[in-house]
């Protein structure tokens, strides 16, 4: 999983074509520039859908004789032929900048991303941002100082150092810890910085005070020994395993003041600090309020009491099952649900200095508040982050403007989406009916015939991207294509180029690099990939296409 907002930006295309015995045209002849070198193949044309075998039986009649089927060799394409092919290409793929904006939410998009066959009031429609106006979230507020001045890509040496090390600065002020296996093997200095994780991601929160003899960490730094807060924060950062550079203590002090002035979580923990000073022996908890399905939506800027409460006296935790309860002393770390509205702002205080809420369960689509039909009427986590990941003019966006920290937040959000989908599969095993048939078949295949283990395992259906059955199904589809049509003629790899003009010209913030906008890289890559597929399927370059499949990674 990489720091991208959607799919990967590398693809491999396996293509089986139907080419005749044609030679490279000689100069002065009337043959087309798209005449092709000698190659043997069968007959017939179809665009094969690799996710289904429905076309397999119909395609058997076009199956070529295996004794004359020879995979095409790249050496057959001479340099002169490639040069002539380039010269005859009707146009160069260039989609320009995202000049179109969604009429409902204002998100920018390219013409090639438009929703096909949808025109409303003589304007192009685009549904990947707000689903045609069904999703609405209030814009983020302009960042406070000094964060607004520091987070600049074209600033002075001090500002460039801050944006280059913004992940470390955010770690200084995070209220929660992030548990994940971070893969830094790709960050060897030969390419742009990359944030990559493997496995599950979880956020955890500790107690208000550290254990005796232990140094304060994360939220405890807002309460414990605040007279030496700057030194404590810098010391805590250097105790981590990752190598860090010496951060500027002046910037740290400025950010402390900013969060004390604007962040409601910081204000609540400072209140706990003051109460501990006045009532040292009093026991109390801090309750970070969660969202219940059906609660009124509060995506506007929250107040301190709307986000967190300091509770004294009756400390029964049964009443607050959906809330985050932080006790005065507790050795165990508590895991925060990705469905909690404070999941993201507690981990990324520099992205959300005002404590803006994250995804909330049960938010209805706009215009469907009272819908009673069987169709989905509430916003999903995918809908929430798709809306937030789109650039809108004159609106600050923490997911797009903070370099590697924004990339980390997008990867974190993608992991939360996957977790919510897996949780749905777990809770709907009976409805999905994956265990009743496939589970028994798998158990018998493992040699389990006494039935003890049946019904105890969670089965991922083939529709879950990346799952075992998903991989096997696509593998079998690829083999079925080769069984029907023979071996492939081409194995084409297609990789994104960060210097494509569409990417460079769409970086609206001065000094920003392509690696800072993984959302643009992904979207432009898919536009280019569609162009490549269109050229191949047209038959003008490699001849008529019999079948093909795409592998993205």
Descriptive labels:
single chain; 553 residues; alpha+beta; 2 domains; 12% strand
Please explain how this structure is put together.
The longest helix is centred in the C-terminal third of the chain and has 25 residues. This protein is 31% helix and 12% strand. The protein folds into 2 domains: 181 residues, no CATH class; 218 residues, no CATH class. It has 553 residues and is α+β, with helices and mostly antiparallel strands. The strands form 5 sheets. It has a 3-stranded antiparallel sheet, sandwiched between helices. Helix 5 crosses helix 6 and helix 7 packs across helix 8. This is Helitron helicase-like domain-containing protein.
Query: What portion of the residues fall into strands of 2 or more residues?
Result: 5-15%
Alpha-carbon distance between the two ends: 10 Å
Structure class:
alpha+beta
Largest sheet: 3 strands, antiparallel
Pfam family, one: Helitron_like_N
Domain Helitron helicase-like: 384-545
InterPro entries: Helitron_helicase-like
Protein name: Helitron helicase-like domain-containing protein
Task: Describe the secondary structure blueprint for this structure.
Layout lengths: L9 E9 L37 H4 L19 H9 L12 E2 L6 E2 L9 E2 L2 E2 L22 H4 L6 H8 L1 H8 L3 E6 L14 E9 L23 H10 L10 H14 L1 H15 L5 E5 L15 H4 E5 L11 E4 L6 E3 L6 H5 L33 H8 L14 H25 L1 H4 L2 H11 L22 H18 L4 E6 L5 H4 L13 H21 L5 E9 L1
